[in-house]
Design goal:
This protein is mainly alpha-helical. It is built from eight helices and no strands. It has one domain. The protein starts with a helix and ends in an 8-residue tail after the last helix.
Length: about 150
């Protein structure tokens, strides 16, 4: 899903949460919004590590082009390719956040924002018939990638 979609939906949902829960302070709703977007920094980090380039614009273009290429493939062809390891898009990272909630309540708002983001990502995965494990467990991605030879980079 594109960052603009995450921004629009994240803004709407954060505002609704802020209105529905009057005890929520504006900055807590803002953390939910920012978290619903910033989780995709792992896409940027992947680009930086693979391309040795810090350009945010080029990273966006690279991922968009890669997405377009994948969408042109059949479901069977898409599933032959390795999935990118997105460190913030798996339960392994979410578990850390859940534990951090006991240290500071702010992590609850981060987790809510990530939940909003992931719901949108799961809708996208369903739409394109991409296995949910790709954005549920990065350990599963590593295991499943061992049986695949194709890399779309």
């Amino acid at each position: 899903m594109y960052p603009s979609t995450h921004l629009i939906i994240g803004t709407i949902v954060s505002l609704v949460i802020w209105i529905v829960f009057p005890n929520l302070i504006w900055w807590q709703a803002f953390i939910i919004l920012i978290s619903s977007i910033i989780i995709d920094v792992d896409h940027y980090l992947w680009y930086v590590l693979k391309k040795k380039d810090w350009s945010l614009k080029k990273s966006y273009q690279w991922h968009a082009k890669k997405g377009e290429m994948l969408h042109k493939l059949s479901e069977k062809e898409r599933n032959e390719y390795k999935h990118l390891i997105m460190i913030f898009h798996g339960f392994e990272f979410w578990l850390i956040l859940i534990l951090l909630i006991f240290v500071n309540k702010i992590f609850l708002f981060v987790l809510i924002g990530i939940g909003i983001h992931m719901i949108l990502d799961y809708i996208d995965l369903y739409r394109w018939k991409v296995p949910f494990y790709s954005k549920t467990s990065q350990i599963a991605v590593i295991v499943k990638n061992k049986n695949k030879n194709k890399v779309l980079i």
